[in-house]
Amino acid sequence: MVGKLTNIYTLFSVAVFLCILDHVNTNPAIATGYDPFEICIENCAQCKKMLGAWFEGSLCAESCIKFKGKLIPECEDFASIAPFLNKL
């Protein structure tokens, strides 16, 4: 009887270990990190598409380079894009 319980416990332990190992090896996008510089440049391009001539995309990109992506523009947040708007 003790031998059967030991075998069952061993199998259960291996199954739990494999489940944990499988869970640990998953790689969701949020866990891999992100590059703020890349997001900054992409947001500049998106704002240029949305706002057209009113948005200075090159100035925004230069800002991304200067601040290394620390100031990410959000197209719907006036305060974050105000420096890149022109009066036409």
UniProtKB/TrEMBL annotation:
Protein name: Eclosion hormone
Keyword terms of this UniProt record: Disulfide bond, Hormone, Neuropeptide, Secreted, Signal
Disulfide bonds: C40-C64, C44-C60, C47-C75
GO molecular function per UniProt: ecdysis-triggering hormone activity
InterPro entries registered for this protein in UniProt: Eclosion
GO biological process: ecdysis, chitin-based cuticle; neuropeptide signaling pathway
Function: Neuropeptide that triggers the performance of ecdysis behaviors at the end of a molt. It triggers adult behavior patterns: larval, pupal and adult ecdysis, and plasticization during the molt.
Origin species: Vanessa tameamea (Kamehameha butterfly)
Annotated family: Belongs to the insect eclosion hormone family.
Major subcellular location class: secreted
Pfam families on file: Eclosion
Subcellular location: Secreted
Recorded superkingdom: Eukaryota
Signal peptide: 1-26
Gene Ontology CC terms, in alphabetical order: extracellular region
